[in-house]
Model the fold of this input.
Amino acid sequence: MAALARSALRYSARHEAAASESFADHVVAGLGEEQKWLSAKYFYDAAGSALFEQITRLPEYYPTRTELTILHDHARDMSGYIPLSAALVEFGTGSTKKARILIDAAPQLAAYVPVDISAEFLNQEAAAVRRDLPWLAVLPVAADFTRDFDLPPQIRTRPRVGFFPGSTIGNFEPEDAAEFLRQAGRILGAGASMIVGVDRIKDTAVLNAAYDDAAGITAKFNLNVLARMNRELGGNFDLSAFRHRAFYNIGNHRIEMHLESLQAQSVTVAGRTFEFRKGETIHTENSYKYTVESFRALAEKAGWRPMATWTDENDYFAIHALKL
Ligand code: AVJ
Done:
Protein backbone atom coordinates (compact mmCIF):
# COMPACT_ATOMS: atom_id res chain seq x y z
CA MET A 1 0.00 0.00 0.00
CA ALA A 2 1.32 3.41 -0.94
CA ALA A 3 0.61 4.83 2.52
CA LEU A 4 2.89 2.24 4.08
CA ALA A 5 5.69 2.59 1.58
CA ARG A 6 5.53 6.27 2.42
CA SER A 7 6.13 5.81 6.11
CA ALA A 8 8.52 8.40 4.85
CA LEU A 9 7.33 11.70 5.89
CA ARG A 10 5.69 10.41 8.98
CA TYR A 11 7.77 11.97 11.69
CA SER A 12 7.71 8.38 12.90
CA ALA A 13 5.08 8.87 15.56
CA ARG A 14 4.19 5.20 15.56
CA HIS A 15 7.52 3.87 14.48
CA GLU A 16 9.67 3.80 17.56
CA ALA A 17 12.48 2.05 15.72
CA ALA A 18 12.41 4.66 12.99
CA ALA A 19 12.22 7.48 15.53
CA SER A 20 15.48 6.44 17.13
CA GLU A 21 17.35 5.63 13.91
CA SER A 22 20.32 7.81 13.02
CA PHE A 23 20.37 10.27 10.13
CA ALA A 24 22.78 7.91 8.30
CA ASP A 25 20.47 4.89 8.73
CA HIS A 26 17.52 6.97 7.62
CA VAL A 27 19.31 8.19 4.47
CA VAL A 28 20.50 4.70 3.54
CA ALA A 29 16.97 3.32 3.97
CA GLY A 30 15.17 6.21 2.28
CA LEU A 31 17.45 6.52 -0.76
CA GLY A 32 17.36 2.74 -1.14
CA GLU A 33 13.63 2.66 -1.85
CA GLU A 34 11.94 2.64 -5.24
CA GLN A 35 10.60 6.16 -4.62
CA LYS A 36 13.57 7.74 -2.86
CA TRP A 37 12.51 9.79 0.16
CA LEU A 38 13.77 11.63 3.23
CA SER A 39 11.85 12.72 6.33
CA ALA A 40 11.03 16.42 6.45
CA LYS A 41 12.47 16.60 9.95
CA TYR A 42 15.99 16.59 8.47
CA PHE A 43 15.45 20.03 6.90
CA TYR A 44 16.04 21.72 10.22
CA ASP A 45 19.77 21.96 10.81
CA ALA A 46 21.05 25.49 11.62
CA ALA A 47 21.04 26.59 7.96
CA GLY A 48 17.65 24.97 7.31
CA SER A 49 16.09 26.59 10.37
CA ALA A 50 17.38 30.01 9.25
CA LEU A 51 15.99 29.40 5.74
CA PHE A 52 12.62 28.40 7.21
CA GLU A 53 12.61 31.71 9.14
CA GLN A 54 13.11 33.46 5.79
CA ILE A 55 10.28 31.42 4.25
CA THR A 56 7.88 32.64 6.95
CA ARG A 57 8.50 36.22 5.76
CA LEU A 58 8.04 35.55 2.02
CA PRO A 59 5.11 37.32 0.34
CA GLU A 60 3.84 34.00 -1.10
CA TYR A 61 4.11 32.06 2.17
CA TYR A 62 0.80 33.00 3.80
CA PRO A 63 0.57 30.40 6.65
CA THR A 64 2.71 32.08 9.32
CA ARG A 65 1.41 35.59 8.89
CA THR A 66 -2.19 34.38 8.54
CA GLU A 67 -1.99 32.30 11.72
CA LEU A 68 -0.48 35.28 13.58
CA THR A 69 -3.37 37.46 12.39
CA ILE A 70 -5.93 34.89 13.57
CA LEU A 71 -4.17 34.65 16.94
CA HIS A 72 -4.11 38.43 17.35
CA ASP A 73 -7.73 38.82 16.29
CA HIS A 74 -9.16 35.97 18.39
CA ALA A 75 -6.81 35.42 21.33
CA ARG A 76 -9.44 36.73 23.79
CA ASP A 77 -11.97 34.22 22.49
CA MET A 78 -9.37 31.44 22.63
CA SER A 79 -8.60 32.40 26.19
CA GLY A 80 -12.17 31.29 27.00
CA TYR A 81 -11.01 27.70 26.40
CA ILE A 82 -8.16 28.00 28.90
CA PRO A 83 -9.18 27.11 32.49
CA LEU A 84 -8.10 29.02 35.59
CA SER A 85 -4.46 28.33 36.62
CA ALA A 86 -3.94 26.00 33.64
CA ALA A 87 -0.61 24.96 32.08
CA LEU A 88 -0.07 25.63 28.37
CA VAL A 89 1.94 22.77 26.81
CA GLU A 90 3.40 23.66 23.41
CA PHE A 91 4.39 20.76 21.14
CA GLY A 92 7.54 21.45 19.10
CA THR A 93 8.18 25.05 20.08
CA GLY A 94 10.29 26.68 17.40
CA SER A 95 9.79 30.27 18.48
CA THR A 96 7.63 31.30 21.42
CA LYS A 97 6.10 34.14 19.40
CA LYS A 98 2.70 32.50 18.89
CA ALA A 99 2.41 31.18 22.45
CA ARG A 100 3.14 34.67 23.78
CA ILE A 101 0.10 36.08 21.98
CA LEU A 102 -2.08 33.46 23.64
CA ILE A 103 -0.41 33.92 27.03
CA ASP A 104 -0.88 37.71 26.86
CA ALA A 105 -4.61 37.19 26.31
CA ALA A 106 -4.92 34.51 29.03
CA PRO A 107 -3.64 35.90 32.33
CA GLN A 108 -5.32 32.95 34.10
CA LEU A 109 -2.48 30.73 32.82
CA ALA A 110 -0.13 29.67 35.61
CA ALA A 111 2.47 27.69 33.67
CA TYR A 112 3.99 27.39 30.20
CA VAL A 113 5.66 24.15 29.11
CA PRO A 114 7.49 24.53 25.78
CA VAL A 115 8.54 21.11 24.43
CA ASP A 116 11.31 20.95 21.86
CA ILE A 117 14.07 18.60 20.82
CA SER A 118 16.72 21.35 20.85
CA ALA A 119 17.54 21.90 24.54
CA GLU A 120 19.86 24.83 23.92
CA PHE A 121 17.38 26.82 21.87
CA LEU A 122 14.59 25.89 24.27
CA ASN A 123 16.46 27.14 27.33
CA GLN A 124 17.26 30.45 25.63
CA GLU A 125 13.62 30.96 24.70
CA ALA A 126 12.45 29.90 28.15
CA ALA A 127 14.79 32.40 29.82
CA ALA A 128 13.41 35.20 27.64
CA VAL A 129 9.79 34.31 28.46
CA ARG A 130 10.66 34.15 32.18
CA ARG A 131 12.22 37.58 31.99
CA ASP A 132 9.16 39.09 30.27
CA LEU A 133 6.49 37.22 32.25
CA PRO A 134 7.90 36.73 35.76
CA TRP A 135 4.58 35.51 37.22
CA LEU A 136 4.45 32.55 34.83
CA ALA A 137 6.08 29.21 35.73
CA VAL A 138 8.13 28.42 32.60
CA LEU A 139 9.01 24.72 32.58
CA PRO A 140 10.76 23.68 29.35
CA VAL A 141 10.92 19.99 28.40
CA ALA A 142 13.68 18.89 26.01
CA ALA A 143 11.98 16.04 24.15
CA ASP A 144 10.92 14.85 20.71
CA PHE A 145 7.25 15.88 20.74
CA THR A 146 6.34 13.02 18.37
CA ARG A 147 7.25 10.54 21.10
CA ASP A 148 5.91 9.95 24.59
CA PHE A 149 7.34 12.35 27.16
CA ASP A 150 6.61 13.17 30.79
CA LEU A 151 5.09 16.48 31.81
CA PRO A 152 6.94 18.33 34.60
CA PRO A 153 5.66 17.20 38.03
CA GLN A 154 4.98 20.86 38.97
CA ILE A 155 1.91 20.89 36.70
CA ARG A 156 0.47 17.57 37.87
CA THR A 157 -2.51 19.18 39.55
CA ARG A 158 -3.13 21.87 36.93
CA PRO A 159 -5.60 21.72 34.01
CA ARG A 160 -3.65 21.26 30.78
CA VAL A 161 -4.07 22.96 27.41
CA GLY A 162 -2.04 21.69 24.46
CA PHE A 163 -0.85 24.16 21.80
CA PHE A 164 0.29 22.95 18.37
CA PRO A 165 0.49 25.90 15.96
CA GLY A 166 2.10 26.29 12.53
CA SER A 167 0.24 23.47 10.76
CA THR A 168 3.15 21.27 11.74
CA ILE A 169 0.45 18.60 12.00
CA GLY A 170 0.36 18.73 8.16
CA ASN A 171 3.74 16.98 8.01
CA PHE A 172 2.18 13.80 9.41
CA GLU A 173 0.42 11.27 7.25
CA PRO A 174 -3.28 11.70 8.21
CA GLU A 175 -3.44 8.47 10.23
CA ASP A 176 -0.31 9.50 12.08
CA ALA A 177 -1.77 12.97 12.69
CA ALA A 178 -4.69 11.18 14.39
CA GLU A 179 -2.25 9.01 16.34
CA PHE A 180 -0.31 12.13 17.38
CA LEU A 181 -3.53 13.77 18.64
CA ARG A 182 -4.41 10.59 20.56
CA GLN A 183 -0.94 10.54 22.12
CA ALA A 184 -1.18 14.26 22.98
CA GLY A 185 -4.46 13.43 24.73
CA ARG A 186 -2.75 10.70 26.76
CA ILE A 187 0.09 13.04 27.73
CA LEU A 188 -2.21 15.95 28.65
CA GLY A 189 -4.70 13.75 30.50
CA ALA A 190 -8.42 13.75 31.22
CA GLY A 191 -10.26 17.03 30.74
CA ALA A 192 -7.50 18.56 28.62
CA SER A 193 -8.01 21.06 25.82
CA MET A 194 -5.93 21.56 22.72
CA ILE A 195 -5.46 24.52 20.36
CA VAL A 196 -4.20 23.46 16.92
CA GLY A 197 -3.27 25.53 13.84
CA VAL A 198 -4.08 23.85 10.52
CA ASP A 199 -3.53 25.03 6.95
CA ARG A 200 -6.63 24.83 4.78
CA ILE A 201 -7.33 23.47 1.31
CA LYS A 202 -7.47 26.40 -1.08
CA ASP A 203 -6.80 27.52 -4.63
CA THR A 204 -4.02 25.40 -6.15
CA ALA A 205 -2.14 28.42 -7.53
CA VAL A 206 -1.96 29.99 -4.07
CA LEU A 207 -0.66 26.73 -2.58
CA ASN A 208 1.88 26.16 -5.33
CA ALA A 209 3.27 29.70 -5.03
CA ALA A 210 3.66 29.34 -1.26
CA TYR A 211 5.99 26.36 -1.76
CA ASP A 212 7.76 27.57 -4.90
CA ASP A 213 8.46 31.24 -4.23
CA ALA A 214 9.85 33.66 -6.79
CA ALA A 215 12.93 34.44 -4.69
CA GLY A 216 13.88 30.76 -4.59
CA ILE A 217 14.14 30.54 -0.80
CA THR A 218 12.05 27.37 -0.59
CA ALA A 219 14.29 25.86 -3.29
CA LYS A 220 17.33 26.65 -1.11
CA PHE A 221 15.56 25.19 1.92
CA ASN A 222 14.83 21.96 0.02
CA LEU A 223 18.32 21.70 -1.53
CA ASN A 224 19.92 22.36 1.86
CA VAL A 225 19.18 18.77 2.90
CA LEU A 226 21.66 17.68 0.18
CA ALA A 227 24.29 20.02 1.64
CA ARG A 228 23.53 18.61 5.08
CA MET A 229 24.09 15.05 3.84
CA ASN A 230 27.37 16.15 2.22
CA ARG A 231 28.56 17.74 5.45
CA GLU A 232 27.30 15.27 8.03
CA LEU A 233 27.41 12.01 6.09
CA GLY A 234 30.39 12.54 3.75
CA GLY A 235 28.14 12.84 0.71
CA ASN A 236 29.09 14.15 -2.72
CA PHE A 237 25.76 15.55 -3.93
CA ASP A 238 26.24 18.22 -6.60
CA LEU A 239 23.54 20.75 -5.62
CA SER A 240 23.50 22.16 -9.14
CA ALA A 241 22.53 18.74 -10.50
CA PHE A 242 19.19 18.76 -8.66
CA ARG A 243 16.24 21.10 -8.74
CA HIS A 244 13.44 21.97 -6.35
CA ARG A 245 9.97 20.76 -7.26
CA ALA A 246 6.84 21.57 -5.26
CA PHE A 247 3.22 21.03 -6.26
CA TYR A 248 -0.20 20.55 -4.77
CA ASN A 249 -1.41 16.95 -5.13
CA ILE A 250 -5.17 17.57 -5.26
CA GLY A 251 -6.22 13.94 -4.82
CA ASN A 252 -4.13 13.54 -1.68
CA HIS A 253 -4.75 17.06 -0.29
CA ARG A 254 -1.06 17.72 0.13
CA ILE A 255 1.84 19.79 -1.08
CA GLU A 256 4.65 17.48 -2.15
CA MET A 257 8.23 18.64 -2.27
CA HIS A 258 10.81 16.73 -4.26
CA LEU A 259 14.42 17.14 -5.37
CA GLU A 260 14.65 16.19 -9.04
CA SER A 261 17.84 14.86 -10.57
CA LEU A 262 18.67 16.90 -13.68
CA GLN A 263 20.78 14.11 -15.17
CA ALA A 264 21.63 10.44 -14.77
CA GLN A 265 24.17 10.38 -11.96
CA SER A 266 25.49 8.35 -9.08
CA VAL A 267 25.95 9.84 -5.65
CA THR A 268 27.80 8.46 -2.64
CA VAL A 269 26.54 9.25 0.84
CA ALA A 270 26.82 7.47 4.20
CA GLY A 271 29.23 5.03 2.58
CA ARG A 272 26.75 3.88 -0.08
CA THR A 273 26.32 4.72 -3.73
CA PHE A 274 22.90 5.53 -5.18
CA GLU A 275 21.96 5.77 -8.85
CA PHE A 276 19.66 8.51 -10.12
CA ARG A 277 17.89 8.49 -13.47
CA LYS A 278 17.39 11.85 -15.18
CA GLY A 279 14.09 13.22 -13.80
CA GLU A 280 14.05 10.85 -10.82
CA THR A 281 13.16 12.52 -7.52
CA ILE A 282 13.80 12.32 -3.81
CA HIS A 283 10.46 12.98 -2.07
CA THR A 284 11.40 15.31 0.78
CA GLU A 285 8.14 16.59 2.26
CA ASN A 286 4.38 16.25 2.42
CA SER A 287 2.40 19.15 3.83
CA TYR A 288 -1.23 18.04 4.22
CA LYS A 289 -4.08 20.53 3.97
CA TYR A 290 -7.48 20.12 5.60
CA THR A 291 -10.90 21.65 5.34
CA VAL A 292 -12.44 22.77 8.63
CA GLU A 293 -14.68 19.69 8.43
CA SER A 294 -11.96 17.18 7.50
CA PHE A 295 -9.78 18.34 10.39
CA ARG A 296 -12.67 18.17 12.85
CA ALA A 297 -13.41 14.62 11.66
CA LEU A 298 -9.75 13.67 12.17
CA ALA A 299 -9.77 15.14 15.69
CA GLU A 300 -12.97 13.27 16.55
CA LYS A 301 -11.46 10.02 15.30
CA ALA A 302 -8.60 10.71 17.73
CA GLY A 303 -10.99 11.12 20.67
CA TRP A 304 -11.20 14.95 20.77
CA ARG A 305 -14.35 17.07 20.63
CA PRO A 306 -14.11 20.09 18.29
CA MET A 307 -15.25 23.15 20.29
CA ALA A 308 -14.51 26.17 18.10
CA THR A 309 -12.68 27.18 14.95
CA TRP A 310 -11.24 30.59 14.10
CA THR A 311 -10.22 31.61 10.58
CA ASP A 312 -8.99 34.58 8.56
CA GLU A 313 -10.86 36.66 6.01
CA ASN A 314 -9.47 34.63 3.08
CA ASP A 315 -10.28 31.24 4.68
CA TYR A 316 -6.61 30.30 4.26
CA PHE A 317 -5.88 28.93 7.73
CA ALA A 318 -7.78 27.64 10.75
CA ILE A 319 -7.15 27.46 14.49
CA HIS A 320 -9.20 24.77 16.21
CA ALA A 321 -10.05 24.40 19.90
CA LEU A 322 -10.55 20.77 20.93
CA LYS A 323 -11.56 19.16 24.20
CA LEU A 324 -11.04 15.61 25.44
C1 AVJ B 1 6.75 23.85 9.08
C2 AVJ B 1 5.66 21.98 8.12
C3 AVJ B 1 4.42 23.96 8.57
O1 AVJ B 1 4.53 22.68 5.53
O2 AVJ B 1 4.30 24.82 5.35
C4 AVJ B 1 7.47 25.44 4.40
C5 AVJ B 1 7.32 23.57 6.17
N1 AVJ B 1 8.11 23.48 3.79
N2 AVJ B 1 7.87 25.49 3.11
C6 AVJ B 1 4.88 23.83 5.81
C7 AVJ B 1 7.62 24.16 4.83
C8 AVJ B 1 8.27 24.30 2.76
C9 AVJ B 1 6.03 24.04 6.77
N3 AVJ B 1 5.73 23.45 8.12
Residues 55, 63, 166-168, 170-171, 211, 218, 285, 287 surround N,N,N-trimethyl-histidine (CB under 6 Å).
